[in-house]
């Protein structure tokens, strides 16, 4: 409120630093998180509806109801707290019973990258479907997706396939793979292996780690597939042929 009042004063009355502070405060929007899973009573998260899926403010409404269930000992009465979140972006409602979302069908994992290759898309989708019930199963499927992805990247390099995922990562490193992407592939490899053959790690109930693996898969695809495709498309379509020829001569003498 104080800043807003100061902004209404003549510009000459404000120092340069304070004026900049006012401008930034009044005009700079809050950054949108990379991915925020739906969570009870959270003011904003990525909409759980497949027709929306973007980060948006959520408006909450709550009620408590008693439900009767039959069992051998007779009727049983239990109280459940129901909450409803309305997405500001699409207007659709998500329904929660206590702290669990019951509508729509929902996975807390990030959605597959738009450039996810078809040969791994099924694995990633299946991993999303089961991550809540089985973080270990999801990690194992993402490890399989990483194996297929690394194999595809090696093939694009024109190199013979390695004997396994570990060997293919070595080949990609020799071809200039960035260290961060190497670490992402190795994290998927090691954690995925531990999910199948528990050793030092135990992913039985570790959903947080499994969710981070989805992010790693998307990071790899963005770096090795999406970005090069976007850059090449712009270069081919917008750089004149005469300039491309000059660039080719320049690089030939480098």
Explained architecture:
The chain has 254 residues and is of the alpha+beta class. The chain has two domains: 44-103, no CATH class; 118-238, Up-down Bundle (Four Helix Bundle (Hemerythrin (Met), subunit A)), CATH 1.20.120. The protein is 49% helix and 17% strand. The chain has eight helices and five strands, in the order ααβββββαααααα. It has helices at 2-7, 16-27, 118-130, 135-156, 165-174, 179-196, 207-238, 241-252; strands at residues 44-46, 55-71, 74-87, 93-97, 100-103. Strands 1-2-3-4-5 form a five-stranded antiparallel β-sheet, with no helix packed on it. The N and C termini lie far apart (59 Å).
């Amino acid at each position: 409120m104080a800043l807003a009042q100061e902004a209404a004063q003549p510009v000459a009355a404000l120092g340069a630093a304070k004026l900049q502070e006012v401008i930034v405060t009044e005009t700079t929007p809050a950054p949108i998180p990379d991915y925020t899973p739906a969570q009870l009573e959270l003011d904003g998260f990525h909409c759980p509806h497949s027709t929306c899926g973007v980060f948006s403010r959520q408006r909450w409404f709550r009620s408590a109801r008693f439900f009767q269930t039959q069992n051998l000992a007779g009727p049983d009465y239990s109280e459940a707290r129901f909450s409803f979140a309305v997405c500001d972006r699409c207007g659709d409602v998500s329904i929660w019973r206590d702290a669990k979302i019951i509508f729509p069908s929902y996975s807390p994992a990030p959605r597959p990258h738009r450039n996810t290759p078809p040969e791994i898309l099924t694995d990633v989708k299946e991993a999303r479907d089961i991550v809540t019930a089985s973080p270990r199963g999801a990690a194992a499927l993402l490890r399989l997706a990483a194996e297929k992805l690394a194999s595809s990247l090696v093939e694009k390099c024109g190199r013979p396939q390695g004997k396994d995922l570990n060997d293919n990562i070595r080949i990609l490193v020799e071809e200039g793979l960035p260290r961060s992407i190497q670490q992402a592939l190795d994290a998927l490899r090691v954690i995925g292996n531990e999910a199948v053959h528990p050793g030092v790690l135990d992913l039985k109930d570790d959903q947080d780690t499994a969710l981070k693996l989805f992010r790693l898969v998307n990071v790899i695809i963005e770096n090795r597939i999406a970005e090069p495709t976007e850059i090449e498309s712009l270069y081919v379509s917008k750089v004149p042929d005469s300039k491309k020829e000059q660039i080719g001569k320049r690089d030939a003498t480098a």
